[in-house]
C-alpha cells in the first residue's frame, strides 16, 4: 500500500495529549479521550481550524474511569469504523494509528474483524492497516 493510498485515523488513549494533539490532527482525523486537558486543546484546534474535515481534525469521546485502555479501544473502534468507512467518507480509512496502548493478541483478533490485516508496534502504540 503506497502512502498516496493511505487514509489514517488516529486513536489517542492518553488522558493528557495536549503536547501532540495539534500536530497529529494536522496529519489525520484524531479521536481522543474527552478529558479536561484534551478537551481544552481540542477546542483550541477547532477555533484555529473551524473547517477541519473527515481527513483532519479532532473528535473527543467519553469513557469510563473504570475502563482499561484496551477496553476503550475495543469499544470505540466500531464507532470510528462507522464514521470513517466507505459509507461515511469519500475516502475510507485503511490505517488506524493508536497512541497510548500496546498491541495484544486480543486486540489483533478483534481488529481483524474490521478488516485490519497488518499490525506494527510503534514507539507510542501501534499501527493497524487494512
Please give a handful of descriptors for the protein shown.
130 residues, alpha/beta, Rossmann fold, six-stranded mixed beta sheet, 4 helices, 36% helix, globular
Structure, described:
The chain is an alpha/beta fold and 130 residues long. It is built from four helices and six strands. The chain has one domain (3-129): Rossmann fold (3-Layer(aba) Sandwich), CATH 3.40.50. The longest helix has 16 residues, at 69-84.
Outline the fold blueprint.
Layout (H helix, E strand, L loop, with lengths): L7 E5 L5 H10 L1 E5 L2 H13 L8 E5 L7 H16 L10 E5 L5 H8 L5 E4 L3 E5 L1
Parallel strand pairs: 1-2, 1-4, 2-3
Antiparallel strand pairs: 4-6, 5-6
Helix pairs in contact: 1-2
Strand percentage lies at 15-25%
Low-confidence segments, given as residue ranges, are none
Q: Looking at the chains present, what oligomeric state does this protein adopt?
A: single chain
Query: What structural category do the secondary elements indicate?
Result: alpha/beta
